[in-house]
UniProtKB/TrEMBL annotation:
The gene is hemB. GO terms for molecular function: porphobilinogen synthase activity. The keyword Nucleus does not apply. Its EC number is 4.2.1.24. CDD domains: ALAD_PBGS. This is Delta-aminolevulinic acid dehydratase. Keywords: Heme biosynthesis, Lyase, Porphyrin biosynthesis. It comes from Metabacillus rhizosphaerae. Belongs to the ALAD family. InterPro entries: ALAD (IPR001731), ALAD_AS (IPR030656), Aldolase_TIM (IPR013785).
Length: 327
């Protein structure tokens, strides 16, 4: 057969050859593991819509952290879930020095001071209306919310948080938090901004875990329209100008094009949030025997790395850490 063609298969003909030429890799250092901390004692409540994910009370938190550290995971992100009677219209539990996130942070840093603690900096888990800011006449107010976010960030850092991760999508939230941290003497604390956060149906299971569903309306006036692409560049650019150190894109799986756009446009660490709906779909399919969980999880997370992310916030972190150890 006298024809000319490329022999690409030469570079795939053995496992070692494929490993040698692999362009993207998953490392345990790439993962940030989310933990939901609740008030009370002896609580380890599995989230019904997120098999394998639990709400954990402070007295059982050390056991969870010990497992995380033993697997080689270097970073966690803490979400606080207060009792309903501790919620109010301004989310004061978010910035109280003895709030659930602050208590959990102090406890973690006391036992494992080198573990990186990222604090979710938002109000929605702590407000009685479930929105990410101050509400007046049914409207979420932007500017009055900024001061509360800054107060929350400062309180979290005083408790020992290494990174602040504001997720509220108020205009100017990074600038307000950066100013608040600097004024309090925390110029060295980085901000991992939820810079590109879409108003997504993929968040449903998270709202079960964090008990943070809005009590009226939705979050479309402050989270982004899933139809928009160029808006992501404007949002990310603003956050960097205001002092962000990391840029989060959330969700990840349906927004890989956005991740690549952000990576191509900005020289900053890019973080993908592999969100609850993405996790739950794979878990449900695996529990039904429809997919091979390990293979599909690894492929999915590699897709995020290939799209350009440096770090991945994922509920699969412990599973993947185990699989990587086995390999």
């Amino acid at each position: 057969m006298d024809i000319q063609f490329a022999r690409h298969r030469r570079l795939r003909n053995s496992a070692n050859m494929r490993a040698m030429l692999r362009e993207n890799h998953l490392r345990v250092e790439d993962f940030i593991y989310p933990i939901f901390v609740v008030e009370g004692e002896k609580k380890k409540n599995e989230v019904s819509s997120m098999p394998g994910v639990f709400q954990i009370s402070l007295d059982l938190l050390n056991e969870e952290i010990e497992e995380v550290v033993s697997l080689g995971i270097k970073s966690i992100i803490l979400f606080g879930v207060p009792d309903s009677d501790h919620k109010d219209e301004v989310g004061s539990g978010a910035y109280h020095d003895h709030g659930i996130v602050q208590l959990a942070t102090r406890q973690v840093k006391e036992v494992y001071p080198d573990l990186i603690v990222v604090a979710d900096t938002c109000l929605c888990e702590f407000t009685d209306h479930g929105h990410c800011g101050i509400v007046e006449n049914g409207q979420v107010l932007n500017d009055p919310t900024l001061d509360l976010l800054a107060r929350t960030a400062v309180s979290q850092v005083k408790a020992g948080a290494d990174i602040i991760a504001p997720s509220n999508m108020m205009d100017g939230f990074v600038a307000a938090i950066r100013h608040g941290l600097d004024e309090a003497g925390f110029e060295h604390i980085p901000i991992m901004s939820y810079a590109v956060k879409y108003s997504s149906a993929y968040y449903g299971p998270f709202r079960d875990a964090a008990q943070s569903a809005p009590q009226f309306g939705d979050r479309k006036t402050y989270q982004m329209d899933p139809a928009n692409r160029e808006e992501a560049i404007r949002e990310a650019g603003s956050d960097l100008d205001e002092g962000a150190d990391f840029l989060i894109v959330k969700p990840a799986l349906a927004y890989l094009d956005i991740i690549r756009d952000v990576k191509n446009n900005f020289n900053a660490p890019i973080v993908a949030y592999n969100v609850s709906g993405e996790y739950s779909m794979i878990k449900a399919a695996a529990l039904n025997g429809w997919v091979d969980e390990k293979t599909i999880v690894m492929e999915t997370l590699l897709g995020m790395k290939r799209a350009g992310v440096d770090l991945i916030i994922t509920y699969f972190a412990k599973d993947v850490a185990r699989w990587l150890k086995e390999e």
